[in-house]
């Protein structure tokens, strides 16, 4: 393995994370390694016994100095190799203008000049390795050939990597967009290339850029490939909040099937597949339930979230709900390719979230460097397999029976609450239907649109305002009806009280 001896013995201090403890420090330990695999990890006084058991020669023993320690390699769960060339730029821009000004032109350049792409990828991979990232989940470009170049470089350096040819067949600039057929063919070609290398360190990864750049037909085809090949999936997801944030101009043009992560995971990408969602800042509770059920992991990218003004992920909320969370640099959205920076920014993000919390909430929500260390190593490494946990059976049936003795007034109040819930549930459903219809209309408008990007953006924002106005108009109508309904119910209740007295 890249010049490493077949056997290695290392004695000294070791730092790692376990499922139960975020950071464990073990001193005076010895580790035996053979062919890149850990054979034993024991107190150093067991060295002779272990060497005899595994037929290892103590001549290969490396004794660490007092200020040295061994730890697992960092696992960067979200990074864009082509964007290494312009890190630190565009901090003044939200996502879509940043993509148009920097990302797409750079990725197009790498597609057209494979020699230059090789130079960029060599610098990128070397930098991540120097900073301790022994495993990286890479986004490449839409070109299968350019993505193969990245794979060549990663393989030559001995880094473990999940590598994806990016897929984009809609809402993308001219010159950097694929047809559905081109995207599927290029993806299959790249997968074959990686699998034929028979390198256990390399894994091809299904990589739709994000839902706004992939048609529902393409998402369905990619899901089939992932299922048939048992391949992992990586994609970006901010959440529904983005409809009113930095890249609304993309989100409002989506197919209805791309509106929520629930449908992306439940309909497009089935359970049992290893899936990483990058960012996930604005996921709803319902979406988090689906994510947990599907065994999907979230890649927390705090540097990028700050730099592109995407928001702050509440990591503690995800962890408390049993959602898997790893850590990513997301360069060049993030301006630093090192996982130590991701750890620092992760702690900062958690601290910022506490600004509006009470003392009790701060104590409950606090995250430290130990938590982020776990996310940067074990958290990113956890297999995202199907570990569906059935909901616990409800043990409150007896309590429900006790409620039968409640008086009629309480039952009437419950009826009022049920009416209230039903009305607002209906409003939300109606809102979703309006959104779906409006989104379809928006897609047609954009296909027929002419003029500059700014003109198109103005059209999109105007249509979004019309959608919001329609929703509020309907909501006000139903709220007025509900108020009249509640007033009538209240008068009836007061009348029953008087009669009862």
TrEMBL record:
The keyword Protein biosynthesis does not apply. SUPFAM superfamilies: Metallo-dependent hydrolases (SSF51556). Residues 384-417 have a biased composition (Acidic residues). Pfam families: Amidohydro_1. Its cofactor is Zn(2+). This is Guanine deaminase-like. GO terms for cellular component: cytosol. The keyword Metal-binding applies. Keywords: Hydrolase, Metal-binding, Zinc. Residues 383-417 are annotated as: Disordered. Residues 69-382 form the Amidohydrolase-related domain. It comes from the Eukaryota. GO terms for biological process: guanine metabolic process. One of its GO terms (molecular function) is zinc ion binding.
